[in-house]
Design a protein that fits this description.
CATH superfamily: Ribonuclease H-like superfamily/Ribonuclease H
Radius of gyration: 13 Å
CATH topology: Nucleotidyltransferase, domain 5
Distance between the termini: 34 Å
Shape: globular
Number of domains: 1
Oligomer: single chain
Helix content: 25-40%
Number of strands: 5
CATH architecture: 2-Layer Sandwich
Structural class: alpha/beta
Length: 129
């Protein structure tokens, strides 16, 4: 099973945003960070998951993925397959489409203190701009 940690950073809401992805596969570690443009903080969290899914499709096709995020909005949306805010619906739809490429994809909410690597990467990408 591959552990995928995602996070986003935004300056303002909406504002300049970036994502950080930290992946653990056995003893290997993978780091991704990317500036994504102007988004709300919640949109950026959804985009972080999408970026991680795209990376995993290239690097780990057919693997079981365990996502960890400190965004309750994203985790609850995926778990319930429902969003209250219609702005998030296209992101949820894309996540659902991408997860079909994997045998199992799990999502778990974690506290911020357990997501330090992804947070650090997202902040680096934001301030590298």
């Amino acid at each position: 099973m591959i552990e995928v940690y995602t996070d986003a950073a935004s300056q303002g809401n909406p504002g300049p945003s970036s994502v950080g992805i930290y992946i653990k596969k056995d003893k290997e570690k993978f780091y991704q960070k990317k500036y994504i443009g102007t988004y709300s903080n919640h949109e950026a969290e959804f985009i972080a998951v999408l970026e991680a899914l795209n990376f995993c499709r290239r690097m780990f096709p057919k693997e079981i993925l365990s996502f960890r995020s400190d965004s309750k909005t994203v985790v609850e949306a995926v778990e319930k397959n429902y969003v209250k805010n219609d702005v998030f619906y296209p992101y949820l739809q894309q996540i659902n489409e991408q997860t079909e490429y994997f045998p199992y994809v799990f999502f778990k909410w974690i506290p911020e203190k357990q997501n330090k690597q992804a947070d650090k990467l997202a902040r680096e990408a934001l301030f590298d701009q």
